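SAMPLE LOG
Freezer: B-3
Tube label: C17
Construct: single chain, 425 aa
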Amino acid sequence: MSDINFDPDRLDKSGGTLENFGQKLRTGGDKLAAAGDKLAQSASRDRTGIGATLTQFFGKATEIGGKVVAEGGRVAEKSGENLKATAKSIKEVDHHYQRQFTGTHQDRTSVQALSGGGTTKASSASSGGSKVSSPGSVGTGGGDPASSPTGPGGGGSGVSKPPTLPPGGGGPGGGKPGDGRNLGPSWREEADKHFTPKERQELDNAMRKLSEEPNDRGVPGSGRLTQHERELMARAQQLVTIDKDTPMQKVIPPGDVDNYLNGKYSEVGGFVARQQDAAHLNTPASLIQGNRLDYAGTPYRSDMDRVNVIEFPATDPDRYKTPLGAPAPADHGALPTDPSVRHASDRMHDAARTVGLDSSTYNQSNYPWPYSGAGVTADPNGVPEREMSDRMGIPHGSQMVEYDQNGNRTVSHVFDEDEGWVPAS
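STRUCTURE (predicted):
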């Protein structure tokens, strides 16, 4: 009986190719079905004669054909996922036996070394779990009025991207050296501990794909990812947890700062971020781009002299939910209810279930671009975002912080539950 040899890397690549082809086929089918449905509905309102009847028939046929094509794409996409899963299993088996062999070899080497009078020590690395929450278009809409995710749709309203920043941000010990904060490790640093080097590289690549601006080739954000990449993003969310003392932050629109300080606004809500994940965003331009505050009608500009942030303790961890789903690029005619958007959203939730993400920690949310739908902001240097389930009173000890163009962080006011905002000493 001859041995059959599988190359897991080639199998994984073939699976990825098939999965991508399936995604394109499914997206095209969904669009065809939507076009047929619109044509049929339009014709159904025209009762003038046989022409309208034929048009309605053609629309229905187009819709059915589109659904068939889309289903074929889903089958191909699933087959690609299965091939990749098989490749992963083969790699795990190979790795398991390689570890066993290596361990046995090392044991023998250690015995030989000890018998010769030498000493061999094994070094161990421990990985800690950080507690993280995330921001969604952090700071979108401030003040007491209900805030909207990433603003009311749109993207790229003249906001220039800041220079590429190193991955991580907010290393152990917190943000910028000397700013007095004692923050835990960022989500990227936790990923370095819990992901393999290859997975870490794939995560960075997924972040780049999430940040690509919309075009006419399908759903942006989470819609651009393969299912494997969606699962990586969902796994990363498991590293982003919060407790009652986790330091959070929310970017405040310039017109709302005085309303907070004079007591007109007394609550915080909407999309927020964990400070340790956003510590590398320390200028107006980087805060605006990293939090994707460049939505349509945004009050922010990348050339602003300063941007204000409210920093506060999480207080109630159950308020913070990870928004998972897909974005709707309104500028390209897509709505949150479009079949292609719904499908991408469902696939993101499939990924969350596959990796075992606690269902009580996330919501299915489809918002206008530049919302990403993957639980992080749509920027290579972006941050995990969390959406507060409801607004809460500003906690005692919260701080109003100002960032300038030089990256200086200045605490201007501190919140006292009895006196309100008081100037920082």
